[in-house]
Amino acid sequence: MRRNSFPTLGNDMRPRNPESRGNRPTAEENVPNRFELFLLGDGEKKVTEETDTRELALQSPHCGTLHLFSNIDFASLPDEYKSANDFLSAGIPSTSVFTFNKEDHTLGNMLRARLLQSPHVLFSGYKVPHPLFSKFILRVQTDGTLTPRQAVLQACKDLVTDLGLLSREFTKEWELRKMVGEGVDGMNGV
Q1: What average pLDDT is seen over the chain?
Q2: Measured at the alpha carbon of residue 39, what is the angle toward residues 111 and 169, in degrees to the nearest 5?
Q3: Which pLDDT tens digit goes with each residue over 32-91?
Q4: Which residues pair with residue 141 across a beta bridge?
Q5: For residues 102 and 134, is the Cβ–Cβ distance under 8 A?
Q6: How many degrees, rounded to 5, is the angle at CA 103 between CA 99 and CA 105?
Q7: Which pairing describes strands 95-101 and 47-51: parallel, antiparallel, or unpaired?
């Protein structure tokens, strides 16, 4: 027997039948297919890189004061900064923003942690823009001896090596436990 077998009031205050949902999707229909969480679509890239141009630091040629601007439109800069081309630095030096499609916190946190182990990486952080979409954004700043791309590639290679070692060690321990378990069962006559 159903609990709510009587008509309820909708947002428009008219009685409606609980079984009829109109053209609204149900929760099950709203969930993306599992394969959409890890398979790339046509023309979709796994990783994209953009130079971080979030801020611009300009030093005034007259007084030497350092000014920080966000979301710069170069045409709107005061003339004193336009003439001081040698003081312009577009964005934070040696910083890139990587977008990883069809990945989540698992890879994001491993990459961030591995990047921070490098002496050439000054900053590494990631965020997941929305929990329903398998995508994360990784920001990497280096000291200039390595490019952010080189740092990420090296971190990926190191992670593959570490995970291969973990897999081998786990398999070895698993096989040893199975042998010990078989020996104990054989001694008990089981």
Answers
A1: 77
A2: 45
A3: 677 777 788 888 899 999 988 765 555 555 555 545 555 555 555 566 555 544 444 455
A4: 95, 123
A5: yes
A6: 100
A7: antiparallel
| Among candidate residues 130, 69, 148, the one with its CA nearest the CA of residue 138 | 148
Half-sphere exposure of 111 (CA within 13 A, CB side): 26
Return the ∠ at Cα 70 (arms to 139 and 114), rounded to 5°.
10
User: Tokens 């027997």 sit at which residue?
Assistant: 1
Helix (H, G, I), strand (E, B) or coil at 50: strand
Give 48's strand partners.
99
- Residue in 146, 169, 170 with CA at minimum distance from that of residue 157: 146
Q: How many residues are given for the chain?
A: 190
SS3 for 47?
A: strand
